[in-house]
Structures are given as structure tokens and as C-alpha cells.
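Input/output pair, single chain:
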Amino acid sequence: MSLRSKSNQLAALIALTSSLFMGGCTMLLKDSASSAANATHQSLFGWRDIDGGIESAWTDNAGLPSFIAGQRYVRFVRPVQVAARGNFVFVVDAGTELLYRYDLSRNELKIVLHLKKYMAGEVTDLYVYPDHSFLLVDADSARVLHFNRNGGLIRVFQDSLNLIRPVAVTYDEEMGRVLIADGSSDDVLVFSTTGQLQGVIGTRGVEEGQFLNITAMTSGADGIYVTARLGHRLQLMGRDGSHLKSFQSDAVVFPLAVAVDRSGNTFVSDYLDNSIKVFQGELFLESIAGSGITPGRFKRISDLWYDEGFLYAVDSLNGRIQVLRVEVIEPEIETFVEEGVAPTDAGDQAAAAEALRLDIPAVEEELEGAQSELEKLEVELEAEAARTELEAAKAEPVQVIDLPSSETQE
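Output:
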């Protein structure tokens, strides 16, 4: 075989090796996300951080109103709860013991409520109605308080026999009732909007439809989503109290907060690694973010809230609210065109993709063989080049130089 032929063969083998390597990596990446390959993929993207705002309607030490004293930018100290309705974001700051309403368009903070006037301890959950009235959970006093949009107390939800330590609250829009999760008896109490206890959802335990150490709750189109520290960590309960489904338990270790969008995509914060776990139906899609102080990183995600395409995440120990844009991405199906003919419908595309699916072990074996052959060819090429150089040297005529004799030199 000539040197040129071997060089051509070497080039072909290099191309084959590169092709096999790239194909194998692509399939491995697909396999790592194979659970979501046939589903719509849900992803989160950073939009903005809210660490405070321009406080409105305040006075300085001399009692001068803000329009005379000037504007003041106030930063959150330790936000713990969040809720959003359109252009307004409600934030419970445990560090200042205040409930703020933040205006997204004006970057303005308004104090809605001085919490220590009503709360015996730290607020453990917040729910805001469309009319901007809101519910606050006070675990230490075993009650849930309902305020109007201006901070006026409307009603108190309590039951000395059944509501011992409330930890979460939500409003069931479908049934028009208030749901309060009790962390002592580990069940969900159902109240009318006027404060009468109507029923109970779930019991304490580790079986399906039971809870052990409830941490959060929210209401969605499909039912009631409840997270717990132990047992089934995320469950969907029917409005009639039945168990509908349990989510993959090992995907979340220590759930602190839960939110769900109108399409049934579920977001759960994990205290263990400061991440947000994304589910579609019962399917675990991905884990997003992690520990840190930069945008997109968190230190204790204490609450989540979904509103109009955005997920609001309380980054408590970093003193901010991170607003993440929720985007639905349809999975791409790879198609290969042969002789100008392409699949014409989804069935043909799926068939094409299945026909071209690579067998990873076979690919790896073929790749190893190609690499071995490549190494042999490289050795042969080096030897061939050395022989060619030697033969060329032998073929060159020997030049004889006549040196003058010693006598002539003298």
C-alpha cells in the first residue's frame, strides 16, 4: 500500500472515529434525559432579582414626609414568604417583621402590615387572593388570619381541638374553601370562607394518602399538592380527600415549598441542595440551581409562588426574591433526510428516530476497534516515511571532493 493510500485510509479512520465519538456522546446525553424525552420539557430561566425597593409613605427622624425628605431605598433583611398577583409582589420579611407590597413597574415598596402587632411568632405561610386580601399563618398562636388589602383584620381561622400547629394555607378556587395544613396531626383541615371547619383531607402516616411532617401545600387544577419531610414527599390529593398520585420520592430529599402552574407542572424547593425540582405530572424532569450567592443560586428557598408565567422563589438567606421565567420547550426529534425525502408526519419522524437509534455498547466497541486500527496505521506511516527517506538518501549520487596534496599545499 502506498503512502498516499495509507494517508487516505488514516483520514477516513479519523473521520469515522470522530463520527462515532460524537454520536455516542449525543446518545448518552439523550439517555440521561430519557425520562423526559417524550414529554414537553419545562425549564426555568432567570428574569430579575428583587432585594428591596423604594419605600413609599415614610417619614424621617424629623417627621418630614418622603416627598420632602427624599426617597429611601430599603433592602429586605430576611424574606421568608412570597405571593404575586400581576404587577404586585407581596413579601413577608421576618427580619423587619413587615409585610411589603412591591410594585414591579415602579420598583416601589409599601408597608402593608406590621406583623408583630398580630403575630405571636414568625409567619409560616402567605396566600394572596386576586383582590389582594391575604391569609397569614401564625403557627405559634395556632391560627390563620385573613386581612383585607389594606391590612385590616377580617377573620380568624382557628379550632382549639383540631388546629394545633398550622404550617401552610391555600385557597381552593374550584370549591371555594380555605385549606390549612396542620403540622401536629399531619392532615389538611377544610374550612369554609367564613371560618367553619368542614372536613379533613389525609391522615398521619407513611402510606399513600398519609403525611408525615407536612412542610408545604398548594392548590392546583388537578387537586391539592402536599409536601412532607418523611414518607411520600410529594402527593396529589383529590378534592374529595382521595389519594390521586405520589411523585418520585427520591427526587426530593427535604421539600420546603411547592408551586404548580396551570398546566400541572410542579416546582418543589429542596432544602438539601438549595435547588428547585421540576416535575411534569409524576415525571421528574430536572433539578435547577444550587447553593450560592450569584443570580440563579440560592441559600434556603423558603417559599415558591407561580403567577402568569413566572415562578417567584424566596432566596431567604441571600435577602432577595428571584423571579424565574417559566418556558415550555417542545423536544426536538432528530430527522435524517435521505435522497431528498423527509418524514411527513409525527409517526414518520418517530419511526425515523427509532430506526436510527444507536446501540451504545456496539458503538463503543466499534469506536475501540477504529482507534486500535488508527494507532496501527500511524505506526506503519511513520515506518513507511522513514524507509522512503532512507531510500531517497541512497539514491542520491555521492559527491567526491578532491583535496590538494600536502606538497601542493606547501
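The two ends are 58 Å apart (CA to CA). The CA atoms of residues 139 and 265 lie 29 Å apart.
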